[in-house]
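Dissemination and training. As part of the outreach component of the grant, students in the summer workshop were shown how a complex can be specified as a set of sequence lines and then modelled as a single object. The example used during the hands-on session is reproduced here so that future cohorts can follow it. Participants entered these lines:
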Amino acid sequence: MGKQDIDLMAHLMRRAGFGATRDEIDEYVAQGYEATVEKLLSPGDPTWMGDFMVRRFDHEASGMINHRGGARSWLYRMITTSAPLQEKLTLFWHGIFATGVPKVINGRVLYDQVNMFRRNGMGSFDKLLLELSKNPAMIVWLDNQDNHNGAINENWGRELLELFSMGVGSYSEEDIKECSRAFTGWTIGNTEYMMVRSQRDSDWPYGRISYHFEYRPEDHDEGEKTFLGQKGNFNGEDIIDIICKQESTARFIARHMYHFFVADEPPVPAWPYTPPRDPDAIDTLVKAYSESNYDITSMLRVLFNSDFFKSEGIRYEKVKGPAEFVVGVLRLTGEFDRPRREMVSRYSQITWMGQELNNPPSVEGWHQGTEWVDTGTLIERINFASEQFGDANKPGVKAIVDKVFAGGGDDMTPDQLVDLCLEQMGAISVSDETHDVLTRFAKQGGRSEQDVAHVLRMTAATKEFQRA
Amino acid sequence: MVSSAAQTHKKVLEYNNTLGIVAMEGRGFEYPTDTVIARDGRLYVTNRSRDTGERAVRVTVLDVESEFYGTFGYFGRGDGQLVSPMCAAEDNTGHIFVTDDVTHKVTAFDYDGNFVSKWGVHGSEKGELNGPSGIAFDADNNVYITDTHNHRIQKFTSTGEFIMAFGSNGSGQGQFELPWGTTVSPDGEVYVADWGNDRIQKFTAGGDFIAAYGASGLGDEKLQRPSSVAVDERGYMYVADWGNERVKVLDADGGLLQNLRGEATLSKWAALYLEVNREEGEARAKSDLEPSTDLLDADDPHTQSAHVEKLFWAPMSVKLDNAGRLFVTEGNRHRIQIYERAS
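and obtained this result:
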């Protein structure tokens, strides 16, 4: 098992998942890179802590009056799932089709949307867009319940084209209007009652009722529309068909995928004016999109097996997003063998790091890359990880410490101690400068379990650990 | 339409009415966990609140006519305070005992909500508790406590002196997987909702295994993560089938007599709210609150209950009163549905 194989596998697991322990990496390397990619893409029926456990011991994750309960349920799933790519991709779509609580005002509806991303996020893009168009959280978020025959509301139509598929510059203002006409009558059931409750932020009388999609033919504009040069009595399904055939859609999704899994691109508003960082990579992904009939799994297969993904030049280039960072740490430290009240704090810590799940800053989602880090959020990240790894009683930390001692013995040198910590925290490669700093720190301490935990804490503060 | 009618082999119960409304403080419930039908004629309802629950944790006192008498037992770790009240029972001196699965304590209050005593030490040794939930007194005023994370039942005096323990982690006879509710039948036998094993187990007062009831699975005929059980003088078992979002009535041999899915109507407090908040009331009156079932996955009763308000959603507890009425406390709908004996 060569170091190159281990480093590449560690890279794959950081990007396609939330990192992995050294033992997991060894298992994957033994199976082979391509086989591991296939396993990530086709996880079967994933195991995780389970809905019943979460709901019994975290009751707000069951009733979901607010948006935090559903988000905690999702965090438990991210932390314990056997299918990390599925959750990573759910996070990916949550960032693109960003929907938030301030308008939806119903935690369960947002939870249902996240589940929809999980069910459809690895399938065909046209099916995903269709489900998104019918998704009650999205309908309310972008006001499609106010989009009526003869009195259109363009909010959904505009964002569908601008932020969810083609990107600015690929359509006209007239296309937005015609698109909106095609989606008239796509609403939620009991619109008036649900909106009155939403406006009043009403839990009464018996907690929130989840929304459901309703198509109202009497409110649908059956007339002829002209959309992207095509004419017809289009309904929403037809619009999605046309959108998905556009090369601009393929390029838009390909760039998002590159941005999330490979290397940071500028924020989306800059895309019309800034060429992609790697145009050949985007072309490759566009080709996969077209040849597979818009299949997301096929695009990801090409991406993870490509040279541009495997390249050493992009490793540790991406700053981990707050949810990704926290989940990765918690998977290592094993704090949540079962639901615990501490998850309320973990969710808040992710928020303080700049990412409140189920409450993105706008429909544009979160800006990624180095924008995740400022002086405040960096301190939050380091304090969180330091607290986690500093507790040698946490089962995952104890397991790492035991393996460090098993590998180096009681009299290991500072160099050995640092190398073993880096290995056990996920086969992390660091620069000479980082290694020097860690070694100098290790020299100051002894060789007790707590001393090893201190080196783990310091390692978690390195720029390499903060990145993927 | 999701069927909510009582599916019946033999109609034991019929719907009567609903109590409660969601409220973060004062009159109402928020994530209620259990109801004590006390001998003073009042109902004592424990509430967990949302998230960290610094506001809505309390015991709400009312009666079956929806008369509200106040609250007590607020959030905290001091005497007379609660962090995560789970289950409650009355002893034979008129004290209300509440288990707390975060503080690992059992706290006793009088009818007026005054603190009486508390006991419980966190741990796994005999007499220690880890996440206590179910609680039930026997005729001698001794108390059985479900020691959830230790996967056992422990018996104490009402002052917390350890008497005995039975059960261990597993799926064999007399073993448990995160047990929840417990009750003592009129015959003095101990019944336990063995949550993780999808069954009800029955024991002698001394903890000897007698029988287990329930096949594991989804739907009308099976049990999925039962939370609570009550037993009447005929030996009929009333089971809060929490994972199936149902309540089941079983005969003394475990045969299914009746399956309930929930039929809630507006409580007095709910009706008053909608009368005062007219805009909401009028919009509600025009709504179809029972959307077509083809929108909802029949294999996902939790999601069905999120969409259809009258259905049980997180039935946490079932309790019988002296008239044989069944009180179903629903965590996620913040109310109690009452069923009476069928005529």
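Chain B has a mean pLDDT of 95. Students were then asked to discuss how this feature might be tested experimentally.
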